[in-house]
Amino acid sequence: MNEKIEALREKLKSLNMQGMIITNPVNIRYLTNINAEGVLLLTRRENVYITDGRYMETVRKTLTIDDEIIVYDFRELSKEDYENFFIFCENVGFEEANLTYAKYKEYMHKYKINNFEETEGLLEKMRIVKKEDEIECIKQACAITDKCFEHLKDFIKVGMTEKEIAFEIEKFFLANGADGLAFDTIVASGINSSMPHAIPTDKKIENGDPITIDMGCRYNGYCSDMTRTVFVGHVPHYMRPVYDLVLKNQLRVLEELKEGNNIKLISKSVDSDFKLNGANMIHSLGHGVGLDIHEYPFMNSKSDFILKENMVITDEPGIYITGRYGVRIEDTVLVNKYESKSLTMSDKEYVVVGV
Amino acid sequence: MNEKIEALREKLKSLNMQGMIITNPVNIRYLTNINAEGVLLLTRRENVYITDGRYMETVRKTLTIDDEIIVYDFRELSKEDYENFFIFCENVGFEEANLTYAKYKEYMHKYKINNFEETEGLLEKMRIVKKEDEIECIKQACAITDKCFEHLKDFIKVGMTEKEIAFEIEKFFLANGADGLAFDTIVASGINSSMPHAIPTDKKIENGDPITIDMGCRYNGYCSDMTRTVFVGHVPHYMRPVYDLVLKNQLRVLEELKEGNNIKLISKSVDSDFKLNGANMIHSLGHGVGLDIHEYPFMNSKSDFILKENMVITDEPGIYITGRYGVRIEDTVLVNKYESKSLTMSDKEYVVVGV
Fold first, then answer.
1. Domains observed in chain B
2. Are residues B58 and A99, on separate chains, in Cβ contact within 8 Å?
3. Could you give the residue ranges of the DSSP H alpha helices within A176-322?
4. Cα separation of A103 and A82, whole Å?
5. Distance, in angstroms, between B239 CA and closest chain A CA?
6. Average per-residue pLDDT in chain A?
7. Which residues of A305-330 are buried (b: 16+ CB within 10 A; e: fewer)?
8. What was the ipTM of the complex prediction?
9. Angle A263-276/A240-256 helices, nearest 10 degrees?
10. Whole-model pTM?
11. In B197-274, which ranges are E strands?
């Protein structure tokens, strides 16, 4: 049987669950490679994927015999079929953070489930430590992202709009082997950079602007995530201390992202250093990256969590001065036993563009 | 106060609900124009939007005083603040089709809600009949889509890959004023066209291929949706009867999409005509289009629903011969009192490309 499903079955057994309904499409992709709309059932006897007519052919092409997954078009299934899937199951797990309240009620009734049990991120937790082939995909996504940044250094010119730059990034990703964007690209210039989540506008790039570019692509579903604040023409003197403070902390965090360290303590150290310098961290310091752009673990000063080898996490401190400017520097980082390894490798010293 | 929120408050009153928690980001955008991550509360006294630091500035820029919405960063709110929002409310509504089971439990506890009541698509139903400014946005998105199709007629050449064509569509949309894609573009050539939801591949376009192109863009958040099956070089004789049958039904449905008609009956008539000719409808005949690419109403032979003026719905019959080819023809259609109006207007007679 499919290795990941086998591991999941072991965990279910230890939780005294005899079955599970998996509805989160990302978890289904993780377990099966299926990239479609449907529901995965682990019953006592078998693994079942229920989809609709539109996806039957794609799904059949994705699965191999080794997966041991039976595929149904939901139109083929009767009321009795649904009721039989979990007939001898005492407890059936579900994904409470994905299943809506409406579907929760519908499924309990449709599958005649006695005890429908929360699984508390069981699959999301399995996904935290990446397998070799997953790390390979993230590396590829990061390499395309670095290549894109190199391209942008020459591409960005005074007079272009933020939207034009964002569009160029998307084009570059697609033309260089990515599946697409990992998230909506941020290109925030001048005072727009003071908004950590700005949407690209028609504002034209001006000499003296900082530009915060937060971008990432997907390779085989896996994400990259990188941010750089670059400078147009020259580095304004008033921004240097802020940039240096962000970079100092970003590098210090990078050093700490290794097995055995607690991300709560790492976050607190940044909070303290920022406060000492009159600044504040207004978003979290980082997050896991994988098939989701934001996944476990979430790095902030409340998150008591010990790092392990082969986790992939972002390191992204930022400072935002409302109505003026902002700086964020972010890498996607692989946690190793004795050191961290940044998978995005673009320049982090002052990068001046548009000259 | 904001007109749409006022209308929603009236509906809540009639349902004996004194408050509501709105979590569906599309519904929040519909009511407020806010395009961010957060939760909208309608309490007895006020309208409250709770977001996080990253979005504060964008949200404040979007809202006007007339909206009468108070914005909080969730970090500013204490346990007591949360408990006070719905303090004198007997019943508080929530969006059971959007709120996850985990959040349902969390919110009930955090807001100390006595009766947390399902609202059964209250907002989604408000969105079915479009307002003038919404129709204007959909028209713009459709116009960009038509323009793109005109461009593709010249652009597509033998030897190109499906992915290249999909990429060109995305580029064209962005360069012509769209916010982005309304959904992942389908470009399915040759036997790939037999899969209604094919993902673009590296397959090269060959002479004699049919190509099914299903594409749509967003304008100010509002979607367009159009499909055409075009032919490379010539129209294979064996495909003509299938194409003609799909087109005949598409045109007949188009005529029926007017106020007072029942979409169940419209769907059944296509089912019958297909069956008479040895074919099957394996997906639904259409769906509402607006801020979501798929929204109410869903047009199939089980959906008992009467059309009204200013609804926008797709008309998309299709026939798929497994392992051989497929044909789908789809328009985005505005329902009027006495007639329908197709908002996408590209050619539907045999379109031959690549010559």
1. 3-126 (3.40.350.10), 132-353 (3.90.230.10)
2. no
3. 240-256, 263-276
4. 14
5. 20
6. 96
7. bebeebbbbbbbbbbbeeeebbbbbb
8. 0.82
9. 160
10. 0.85
11. 210-215, 217-219, 222-223, 226-232
